[in-house]
Hints:
The chain is α/β, with parallel strands linked by helices and 294 residues long. 35% of the residues lie in helices and 24% in strands. The strands form three sheets. Strands 3-4-2-1-5-6-7 form a seven-stranded mixed β-sheet, with helices on both faces. The protein has a seven-stranded mixed β-sheet with strand order 9-8-11-10-12-13-16, with helices on both faces.
Amino acid sequence: MAIYLTKESKVLVQGMTGGEGMKHTRRMLAAGTNVVGGVNPRKAGRTVDFDNRAVPVFGSVRAGMDATGADVTVVFVPPAFAKAAVVEAADAGIGLAVVITEGIPVHDSVAFTAYARSKGTRIIGPNCPGLISPGQSNAGIIPADITKPGRIGLVSKSGTLTYQLMYELRDIGFSTCVGIGGDPVVGTTHIDCLAAFQDDPETDLIVLIGEIGGDAEERAAAYIREHITKPVVGYIAGFTAPEGRTMGHAGAIVSGSSGTAQAKKEALEAAGVRVGSTPTETARLVQATLAGTE
C-alpha cells in the first residue's frame, strides 16, 4: 500500500510539452508511472512519443479526465500561469494536484490552495519535488532509482534532504515519500501526511524532515503526541543558521529562539520523536529503531 499515489493512479501532466515537462514525463514513465496524457490547449489532439510510448495531449484537464479517467495531475507550468492551472484542475474535480512550479507568488498560492480544498482536490506543493511510492508510481521530479519499496513513510519540506534520506535508507525502502514543499503556504502539511501514514498498514515508521522558521514542526509535534502511535524519527535543517536572517527557499526568518532548529528539535523530542543532528545520524536512528535497539 502507499499514501496518495499508487500503481493504480492515472496521471496527467499540465505543461507536458514544455522542456521540464518533457524531461520529467519521460522519467516518470521510466519509473512505471501511468502517465495517461498531457494538457496544453494549443497542442490538443497531438501525441508526444516517449521512447515508443505515445502520450496524447488534451486541451484541458477535464478533457483529459473524461478520456482517460485520470485522478492525478502534475503541474509544470510557469509561475504566472500556475494559479489558473490549479484552479482548472480543481474545477475538473481531480483528486490530487502535484504543483512542482517554484516562484509562485504567495497570494496566488493562498488563493489556489483554499480553492482546491473547497473543491475536494488535494494539493502537494507548490515548489516541491512531488511524491513517489517506489515500485508503483512517481509524480514529480524525485529520482526513482535511489531507493526501493519498503515500509518507511517520509514527509519532508526539503527536496534535497528527501533524496538523501531515501538514498541512505535504500536498503530498507519506503512506502511513500512526500515532498510537501518549503514555501510559506503549502497545500499538504506534515500533519496531513502523518495522519495518512498512521492509517497505512504497510508503513511501520515515519521520517519527518523539517526546516527552520515558522511553527509547522511544533504543530506536528503536538499532533504526534496526541495521535501517532508509530515510531517517528526526525531531522531539522538549519542548526547552523544565523539568527535574524532569511534562509533558503522557505524564507524562514529566525529571531531569538522562535523557529530555530533547536526549538523544533526540543518540541519533537518532547513528543517522543528521535531527532538526528545530521541526515546520516537520522538514518542510523531509523535503522536502530526498526531493529529494536534504540
